[in-house]
Amino acid sequence: MGYDRASTDDVDSVVPEEYGGMWFLRDALNIENVGVTVLELEPDAKGMEHDHESDGQEEVYLVVEGQVDVDLTDRDVTVTLGEDEAVRLDAGESRQIVNRGNVRAKLVLAGA
User: Fold this and answer.
1) Domains in the chain, CATH or no CATH each
2) Strands (E), the chain
3) pLDDT digits over 45-98, tens only?
4) How far apart are CA 35 and CA 24, in angstroms?
């Protein structure tokens, strides 16, 4: 088959519902080389601080709804993203996504 289709309904969230939700779609879509994740963050919720130094994965974060801050924790820099805005992060860049807004934010995360 030339394509695969999946929804967040097809996989379990790895984040408690009170914080939003996080759905890894890589396996559901049979992807070999790119990770695709949908992340929803409630106001005042934040993702895990991390980097990908050990696996060399760069990531792109695209905001679909709302607004988030991407704190670059090693630099003490914050990149604020609104709807339809994206940021690419080097593998070694330590980062944490934070929803400091008043509405739920929704992002698509891609990593390779």
Assistant:
1) 20-111 (2.60.120.10)
2) 20-24, 35-41, 59-65, 68-72, 77-81, 86-89, 95-98, 105-111
3) 999 999 999 999 999 999 999 999 999 999 999 999 999 999 999 999 999 999
4) 8
